[in-house]
Design a protein that fits this description.
It is a single chain. α5 (about 140-150) crosses α6. The chain has ten helices and ten strands. The chain has a single domain (about 1-180, about 200-258), classed as 2-enoyl-CoA Hydratase, Chain A, domain 1, CATH 3.90.226.10. The chain is an alpha/beta fold. The strands form two sheets. The chain has a six-stranded mixed β-sheet with strand order 1-2-3-5-7-10, sandwiched between helices. A four-stranded mixed β-sheet has the order 4-6-8-9. The protein has helices at about 25-40, 65-70, 80-90, 110, 140-150, 150-160, 165-170, 180-200, 200-235, 235-245, and strands spanning about 5-10, 10-15, 50, 55-60, 95-100, 105, 120, 125-130, 165, 180. The N and C termini lie far apart (about 40 Å). It is globular, with a radius of gyration of 17 Å. It binds coenzyme A. The site of coenzyme A has 15 residues, from α2 and β6.
């Protein structure tokens, strides 16, 4: 199983569980996440959602093998690709989402946090947005939401250079709600989710809607723009060089590309 899904005491827990590949997310895993989030919308037993990995790793982001072999949207309606279904569901979720991030959170592992409500990170968490390093462009409306959240220059540093940054820095720029010792993270996040589950669901729903609805049309448009560019770049030679370099455990050489 690569996504563990359970519902207990009002909380839907979605846990990445593919440790041998650093919880890299395959199309099947995106589909499982999208389906669980879609069902949660109408399931009265779900009052809050908890998204987590393991203490050593949140997720290494999109599975790069999948990117090479089965680029999303290549042979199907683009919006139907599991990754885009997942991004749609998480950005339109009406129930509160708590994220518990420990270890690396790469690419979509960081951009999905922009759609969560409470983001708790361990002091060992390392976030990164290496889209340019991979010959790609941002996704999940991060090119809109990150500059808006943290300011243009700080977003530009994260999105253009793609270097990993600490949980503490993520907290200082507003991307992480609170940083905790790794041993306390998952219990704390669960306790926060339990608090949410005990609150009036309608009040939470309306409060979340009121905070987010103003930006929703922009988020949808940005995701569509990003998705079109992303799909094109995914099959371009720069990305192929980056993915091959990763699996060959060498530095990519972009010098031949203008
Ligand atoms: N897709 C596919 N496989 C991945 C992967 C990914 N995104 N991330 C890690 N793996 C695999 C590795 O290929 C390796 O497989 P192997 O044991 O068969 O050789 C295994 O997971 C362990 O990864 P490794 O790189 O050895 O672990 P690490 O602890 O040294 O580093 C990361 C962890 C997450 C920093 C590193 O794996 C990484 O940078 N991954 C790629 C992240 C990325 O670019 N994601 C896409 C964002 S859009």
């Amino acid at each position: 199983m690569s996504i563990r899904i359970r519902i207990d005491q009002g909380i839907l827990t979605l846990q990445f569980d593919r440790l041998d590949k650093k919880n890299a997310i395959t199309a099947a895993m995106y589909q499982a996440l999208a389906d669980a989030l879609r069902s949660a919308e109408t399931d009265p037993d779900v009052r809050a959602i908890l998204l987590q990995g393991q203490p050593d790793i949140f997720t290494a982001g999109n599975d790069l093998e999948d990117f090479m072999q089965r680029p999303p949207g290549a042979g199907e309606g683009a919006e139907q690709a599991p990754v885009f279904q997942f991004l749609y569901q998480i950005s339109h979720a009406t129930k509160p989402i708590v994220a518990a991030v420990s270890g690396a959170a790469v690419g979509v592992g960081t951009t999905m946090l922009l759609h969560c409500d409470l983001v708790y990170a361990s002091d060992t968490a390392k976030l990164s947005l290496p889209f340019v390093q991979l010959g790609l462009c941002p996704e999940a409306a991060s090119s809109l939401l990150l500059p808006r959240l943290v300011g243009y220059q700080r977003a530009a540093e994260k999105l253009l250079l793609g270097e990993a940054f600490s949980a503490q820095e993520a907290h200082e720029i507003g991307l992480v709600t609170r940083v905790l010792p790794v041993a306390e993270l998952h219990d704390f996040a669960l306790a926060q989710a339990r608090k949410l589950a005990a609150l009036p669901a309608s009040s939470l729903r309306e409060t979340k809607r009121l905070m987010k609805s103003g930006a929703l049309a922009e988020v949808e448009k940005q995701m569509a723009d990003e998705g079109a560019v992303f799909r094109r770049m995914l099959v371009a030679p720069e990305a192929k060089e980056a993915f091959s370099a990763f699996f060959e455990k060498r530095k990519p050489d972009f010098s031949r590309f203008a």
